[in-house]
From TrEMBL:
It comes from marine sediment metagenome. InterPro entries: NAD(P)-bd_dom_sf (IPR036291), RCK_N (IPR003148), Trk_Ktr_HKT_K-transport (IPR050721). One of its GO terms (biological process) is potassium ion transport. Residues 1-117 form the RCK N-terminal domain. The keyword Ion transport applies. Pfam families: TrkA_N (PF02254). Keywords: Ion transport, Transport. The keyword Secreted does not apply. This is RCK N-terminal domain-containing protein.
Length: 159
């Protein structure tokens, strides 16, 4: 798959490393040239210096031949604008990250279905931990593509 990231955030770097290791083609768009210079030696991917919220910049990564656009900058507004632009330019899937929970409804109204809110994700994980739902650290047991899912079924779920 060809995957494009908007912003060279810590989440981008960690995710890009994983995806590159799995054989995906990765492109990172970053407005800060110094950040590109600091990061380019640790990642075997392409970098584009520019503002991903600008059509002229985003079009340079060939949206119609790219599978996913991750919008992971430190700015909710840039992430939302880039997501809308990316969707209109032909990315097959657009994933938007926002920090401000008040913007979730706006993202829904704009049709940004794949919106992640990291603080809520972490909050759910911590809640699961204190309730004992995540009491085994499986990261040492499972590697690469393995996934572990749990769920609780009540009597009302019986067939």
């Amino acid at each position: 798959m060809r995957i494009v990231f908007s912003g060279a955030s810590p989440l981008t770097i960690i995710t890009a490393k994983t995806l590159i290791k799995q054989g995906h083609e990765v492109v990172i768009i970053e407005v800060n040239k110094e950040k590109i210079d600091q990061t380019c030696d640790e990642l075997d991917c392409s970098f584009l210096h520019g503002d991903s919220a600008r059509p002229a910049v985003l079009s340079q990564v060939d949206p119609k031949n790219s599978d996913i656009l991750f919008c992971l900058t430190n700015s909710d507004q840039i992430n939302i604008i880039t997501s809308l632009l990316g969707r209109s330019m032909g990315f097959k899937r657009v994933i938007t990250s926002i920090e401000d929970t008040d913007l979730e409804q706006l993202c829904r109204e704009l049709g940004l279905e794949d919106t992640i809110i990291p603080v809520w994700t972490m909050s759910r994980h911590l809640d699961n931990m204190i309730r004992g739902l995540d009491n085994i650290n499986l990261s040492t047991l499972l590697k690469e593509d393995a996934r572990f899912f749990t769920f609780t079924a009540g009597e009302e779920d019986a067939i």
